Amino acid sequence: MAALQAIKQFRIRELGSLLKTTPVATNALPKVTNPFLPFKNPESGRWAPPKYSLRRQAELIKHARASNTLHLLPPGPKLRSKELQSAFAAAAKDLAQEWWTGKVQWEGELKEKVVPGAEFGNRLYAGKKVMFKGHKWERTMAERMKKRKLLMKGMEARIERFKSVRTSDLAARVDVVLTCCYNTDLQEENSEPSQCTAECIIFETAILVSMGAYTTSYFRFPFMLSIICV
């Protein structure tokens, strides 16, 4: 009873004066602005928001479905035209004699957005190649595996080549280079390592550090520490 009363109050509030004064004709129906849609003022050209918010529209539709009076509501974002057409067929017969149930023509264009899969009840994933987005590590797995496969190609040969180089032999060769560079710098007036010598030391030391070879060169040439830190 409360649901029917809510629909009746809505009809009287919006159409009360119009239905009482306008005679009911078969060819001409009274035109009423749809309160569920935005309205454009023809004089100013400005748009006015709907008279009823989406929340109030949903409440009225809920009451109309409970009282079988869905055909008395205008179309809107919450009530499509197809649903209204089926509601007219199942309209309540006992309310046909009530004056507030008279037919009217609602003015306003309802632009219905075509959603793929709406007719099948699968609007979320209709027309998509991938159903679920998944985690980031799942989305990037194919690219990571491709890169990993490329890096692992020939890994055994690289490991053997790495193991074939003795760290002690490499450290000894670097010590010889450093000794020669240092002796050459001592013959100059400044007795400080040149830029070429410094670059050579940094490069060779980086090789030793990456190979895990730590020799006594740091103690033999104290200036190496300052060069590396710079």
UniProtKB/TrEMBL annotation:
<keyword id="KW-0687">Ribonucleoprotein</keyword>
<dbReference type="GO" id="GO:0003735">
    <property type="term" value="F:structural constituent of ribosome"/>
</dbReference>
<feature type="domain" description="Large ribosomal subunit protein mL59">
    <location>
        <begin position="5"/>
        <end position="163"/>
    </location>
</feature>
<keyword id="KW-0689">Ribosomal protein</keyword>
<protein>
    <submittedName>
        <fullName>54S ribosomal protein L25, mitochondrial</fullName>
    </submittedName>
</protein>
<dbReference type="Pfam" id="PF18126">
    <property type="entry name" value="Mitoc_mL59"/>
</dbReference>
<dbReference type="InterPro" id="IPR037507">
    <property type="entry name" value="Ribosomal_mL59"/>
</dbReference>
<dbReference type="GO" id="GO:0005762">
    <property type="term" value="C:mitochondrial large ribosomal subunit"/>
</dbReference>
<dbReference type="InterPro" id="IPR040922">
    <property type="entry name" value="Ribosomal_mL59_dom"/>
</dbReference>
